[in-house]
Amino acid sequence: MERYTDQVRINIRLHDNGLPEEPSEEWFIIASTGGLVDRDAITANVLTQLAPDNYTLDERHHRTSWGASAEIFELVLAMSGGAGGTLIASGVTAAARSLRDKLRKAESPPLTDGQAVHAVRQILCRRYEFDSADFVLNLVEIDTEECRGRVVMTAPDNAVHTVELKQHKGRVTLAKSIRAAP
Predict the structure, then answer these.
(1) pTM of the entire predicted model
(2) CA–CA separation, 150 vs 137, rounded Å?
């Protein structure tokens, strides 16, 4: 079932001496989602890739509705460590990649140079009341893996603006803006 989820957390705990002892090793997979997530598919994926015959799975749903709302889906998988630690570690890596790939498929295409420049021009025009054509483009850097971009422009007053953007679910938002006066 798909539900809006801001973050998915998966915690894998290896217990050498059985439960309820403290885990001897622990891994965390954390993904910011901010959209619809199929929680059942994520659970099935984790169990298929990681769970041995004997395990404890705890599903947790955290919801905050106090001002800005947030919803978190968390899986805690506890199992015996023993000699299989290396196999489990490679399984955790595979599960993390699989989760990342599944969540990215739901997202929009990567941020482009054109989108970044357009967004920065709009931000700077609204903020400083210049015409968008008056800005001189100095630099555009896009990190498609992290869905981030950095654009540097010179304004008509010769101030240099360095603007960092983040793209999430197709929306481009301002992450940081620095204005260096001439």
Answers:
(1) 0.53
(2) 11
